[in-house]
Write a structure and sequence with these properties.
The protein is 39% helix and 15% strand. The protein is α/β, with parallel strands linked by helices and 442 residues long. The strands form 5 sheets. Strands 1, 2, 3, 4, 7 and 15 form a 6-stranded mixed β-sheet that branches. Helix 2 crosses helix 14, helix 9 packs across helix 10 and helix 17 packs antiparallel against helix 18.
Length: 442
């Protein structure tokens, strides 16, 4: 899973984004936004709703909804996670005109589906009295062209997990608060145990690198007039890339595949004693570090001198263009995203950090944090979430960005640098967007 901020753009940008489907030309007259229609009443919504999702343990949620909403019948289908086949399945269904009423879409993919005309705006059915209660930095994740295209579900902030006992033995008494302190802690650890690593660097997960760039003040995408602006090689991102290159070169972090057997074994065997991840990472750490109960803790992500954070992962519930019953679908998506009953029905959802205010308190009660020595890890997530920087945007074609990043990061152990990889991805992204008829500036 991964998260970044979707675009909060004007109608001109929506017109440009629709060029992805060949429905216009760069520089064409910009349509004026129409007046907001009055919202339909959802009180009497009824009928059947098909729901596809890869989010775990959603069947009890659907069962609870069906029990408490007798006029609406939701049928739930488990699909693979997005990049493991879920998005391919959804795209195929959309092309065939038989997509489900509601689908789970991660934040960075949302603008692509919306700009291609594959979704119905949720803001056509759910009002600001609900959507306006989400924090602004989360509301912006689902906005494109002045409309909200999905209900936010979770919004996981980044965090740093670490072995308290191993770092204490190396003379590191507390979690590093800055990246300079992170580097110093890594050097102290190497001095104590040359074969140990403070964390891992994942060549197969460019989303983490994007989150680190976001936290460092980078802004990879923006809008200038009627054009997309691609600035992945901005100075803030270069600073982040150079820092992580130094961590790799000094062997403070180990280059290894995220979620691989090697990574799991390194955590279990205490070869790697920290994880740069997100709120949801706690669940995976627990499963991979049996016998290390009470030895792990979580802290806010180290920063560059002042509080700042980013998000990694996160999902939305969107109504597809093929929905025959969007009012009932809207009732269902709103309930899943905002109801305490929905969170309670899901039960132990791992260390989820939910987007709607107050719901994470319910999730917290269902999660056993004893692995972290009784630490109130949700209070850390709250601070981390509050520090998420505004202004991060994702471009209209996420694959054109992530594919070259993954290709380049896979070569960093053979001479390719992280900074060069980002520069190459900037060019590849720009070329790909131009090839789709979009106006792009650097």
């Amino acid at each position: 899973m991964f998260r970044m901020r979707a675009m909060k753009l004007g109608a001109a940008v929506v017109a440009g984004a629709f060029l992805l489907t060949g429905c216009g030309a760069a520089g064409a007259d910009t349509p004026k936004p129409s007046a907001a229609p009055s919202l339909p009443s959802l009180e009497n919504a009824s009928g059947e709703v098909a729901f596809w999702s890869s989010v775990t343990n959603m069947q009890p949620v659907v069962d609870e909804f069906n029990k408490t909403h007798p006029n609406i019948k939701v049928t739930y289908s488990v699909v693979p996670s997005g990049t493991a086949g879920g998005y391919a399945k959804l795209s195929t269904a959309l092309q065939a005109g038989n997509a489900p009423d509601v689908a789970t879409i991660e934040y960075p993919y949302l603008s692509g589906y919306a700009s291609a005309g594959n979704l119905k705006p949720i803001s056509d059915y759910v009002g600001e009295d609900v959507l306006g209660k989400f924090p602004g930095q989360i509301t912006d994740l689902v906005k494109l062209g002045g409309k909200s295209w999905a209900m936010p579900y979770d919004a996981p902030p980044m965090a740093f997990y670490y072995r308290t006992d191993v770092l204490a033995e190396a003379g590191v008494a507390k979690a590093p608060a800055t990246w300079d302190e992170f580097e110093a802690a890594g050097k102290a650890l190497k001095a104590k145990n040359p074969n140990a690593y403070l964390a891992s660097f994942y060549p197969n997960d460019a989303n983490v690198l994007a989150g680190l760039a976001w936290q460092g003040g980078g802004k990879w995408f923006g809008v200038e007039g009627d054009s997309w602006k691609v600035t992945m090689d901005d100075p803030a991102t270069a600073k982040v890339a150079q820092f992580w290159q130094r961590m790799v070169d000094q062997k403070i972090v180990k280059v290894e595949q995220a979620f691989s057997d090697e990574w799991s074994q390194d955590l279990q065997q205490s070869n790697v004693v920290g994880v740069v991840g997100a709120s949801w990472s706690a669940t995976g750490i627990i499963s991979r570090t049996k016998g290390q109960e009470g030895k792990w803790a979580v802290a806010e992500l180290p920063n560059w001198g002042k509080p700042a954070n980013a998000m990694l992962g996160g999902s939305t519930f969107a109504i597809t263009k093929d929905s025959k019953n969007p009012e009932a679908a809207a009732v269902f998506t709103q309930w899943m995203s905002t109801s305490q009953d929905a969170v309670k029905a899901r039960g132990n959802s791992g260390s989820a950090w939910l987007a709607y205010p107050g719901l994470s308190d319910i999730a917290k009660n269902a999660f056993d944090a004893s692995h972290f020595g009784g630490q109130d890890i949700y209070s850390v997530y709250q601070k981390a979430s509050d520090a998420v920087l505004p202004g991060w945007n994702w471009g209209p074609d996420i694959a054109s960005t992530l594919t070259p990043l993954h290709d380049g990061l896979g070569k960093i152990t053979t001479g390719q640098t992280i900074e060069d990889t980002i520069k190459q991805a900037d060019k590849s992204t720009t070329d790909a967007l131009k090839s789709r008829g979009l106006s792009v500036t650097d």
